Amino acid sequence: MISITNKDSNYLARIMKLDNVIEIEGARTLQKTLIDHQEVAISKDMKIGDVVVYFPAGAKIDHDYLSATNSFAEKTLNADTEVSGYFNSKGLVKAIKLMKGAIKSCGYVVPAQHFTRHYNWADDEWPFKDLPIEFDTINGRVVVEKYVPPVRTNVNGTGPKKVSKLNKMMTMLLPNQFNFHFQTEHLVRNLSKIDLNKDIIITRKYHGSSLILANILLKKELNWREKFLKFFGANIVDTEYGFVWSSGKPKGKKPKGIESDSLKWDTPNPSYYTSDIWAKAYKENKDKIEKGVSLYGEIVGPSIQGAEFSYGHEYQIYVYRITRTNVDGVVTEMSWEQVKEYCGKYDLTHVQEYDIINGGYNVGGVERLVEDLIDVYLDKSYPDCKVDEGICIRQGSTILKLKSPNFLIEESGMLEKGESNIEDEN
User: Fold this and answer.
1) In what order do the strands lie in the sheet with 200-205?
2) pTM for this one?
3) pLDDT tens digits, 280-310
4) Taking the CB of the first residue and of the last residue of the chain, which one, N or C, has fewer CB atoms within 10 A?
């Protein structure tokens, strides 16, 4: 049985029928198809109507399957050690230019039967009539997931002192007060979330390291007198507002630091940057974070993701989202206009706004909208960034991303070299 185990919908495989095939002049073994408005290289013998399995760029495919099909570039990893394939030893699906750029392939496609037979599924057991179907698990085995390069060695280790310090930090946080950023999903996989009759906001997507600065209720550290009075039934306030700073989606699910009148905590995890970029953001901006406010942003600069993604700054924060959390832990999302007003009030920089389609999009359907967005905004080169990441589409509390194929190719190269996003490590 197929199922979904992981929550990251951006890296699910999909059983589907090919609905388009594009021939390439001069190509003997390859052609291409468009899946989610992105080019994917396919075998010359595939045709419209074929049932296939599609894997998106950035995914990691099951090692056993790639080995059995002799798909690894390293021959010794394959069942037939005389044959070599395309994949690195970790099974990364790369975005790659082929045939001198005639194809910008942003995924991997195999015949469905070719894939399913490896997992001992008979043809009549698969629900081919109800396509497309997304999955990452077959019979309890995860066969595709997000590719994350190996974590670089932490010189401080994970000894008892570090674990104790992390455990103490968890007691400082109150339920529902601090929230990491949600997983930003791909627009092309979530077209049903866009209402063409409402305003559509288009903003730039920056490639850096995400940041959270929050001024929220924390558990107060009581002094001996307060503890004594509370023991005998006195009504002692045991919460207080304080600051939490963090990366947006750390693998360890723990913030970088906490500070209030009675508390002070810094992560025992070392920073893999030359300096603690999140603590720097807190120190420089804590006076701009009102009580109850959580600010979500992207830190960019040459020391973050390299000089090509500095956007003309040594160190810069771009705010893309702001929320308010009340004493009961109820979160209210600021509208884009409110985000801009807040940033203006405190001299903060929000992500660049490209356009607002007021009153919705009435030129055509949502597929036409995506085509227009791709034509206007993707694969562009700007003075501050030669390989621009792409855009975000915003509508109410919904934020969806659309990445440039050129950026996906660049990102695949970084992943293959082991240059992971720092947020996947910390």
Assistant:
1) 185-186, 398-403, 390-395, 200-205, 353-357
2) 0.87
3) 999 999 999 999 999 999 999 998 888 889 9
4) N
